[in-house]
Amino acid sequence: VLDDPDLKDIDPTVLKHCHAAAATCILEAGKHQADISAISTCLEDCKLDKERIEQFCTEYQKNKDALEILLGSIGRSPVHITDVSWRLEYQIKNNQLHKTYQPSYLVTLNVEKSDSGSHPDVSFSCTMEQLQDLVGKLKDAAKSLERATQM
């Protein structure tokens, strides 16, 4: 879009804001399954002229089915952690057969997605320091949530 010769005189920051606003409008219309009259009313409230509103609605109508399929594939909620398991792994040698003696933790988060039932588990490896950092951040998040619910 920034390379379009018709748009060369427009400030790139303004152009990016316009692109973000249009994308948000399209996504929200798709998410709420808005009809053309609702979209037209919204765009009229934003002071767009009738010709642009008609062009926008025509393009939206053409791509509505593809948009709904795309939004449906994304899902509506993040995964939910149901359990966590871990084990200590002790690496004695590396690929070059050098002795390393490095302990690490293999952590597996059991997750489920509320709209589709199950989801593959999330696994990662980390050092003791990384695991302590993760636990600290989780404790901070839990305290923040606790404070927010007490207000």
Low-confidence stretches: none
Instruction: Please give the alpha-carbon distance between the first and last residues.
Output: 46 Å
| Domain unit count | 2
Number of H/I helices: 4
Helix content: 40-55%
Kindly state the number of beta strands.
3
SSE topology string: HHHEEEH
Which structural class should the secondary elements be placed in?
Answer: alpha+beta
Task: Give the C-alpha Rg.
Answer: 25 Å
Question: What is the typical, i.e. mean, pLDDT?
Answer: 84
Strand order of the largest sheet: 1-2-3
Largest sheet: 3 strands, antiparallel
C-alpha geometry: elongated
Task: Estimate what percentage of residues fall within beta strands.
Answer: 15-25%
Brief digest:
This protein is of the alpha+beta class and 151 residues long. The protein has 2 domains: 12-74; 81-150, no CATH class. It has helices at residues 12-31, 36-45, 50-74, 128-150, and strands at residues 80-93, 99-112, 122-126.
Secondary-structure map with pairings?
Blueprint: H1 12-31, H2 36-45, H3 50-74, E1 80-93, E2 99-112, E3 122-126, H4 128-150
Antiparallel strand pairs: 1-2, 2-3
Helix pairs in contact: 1-3, 2-3
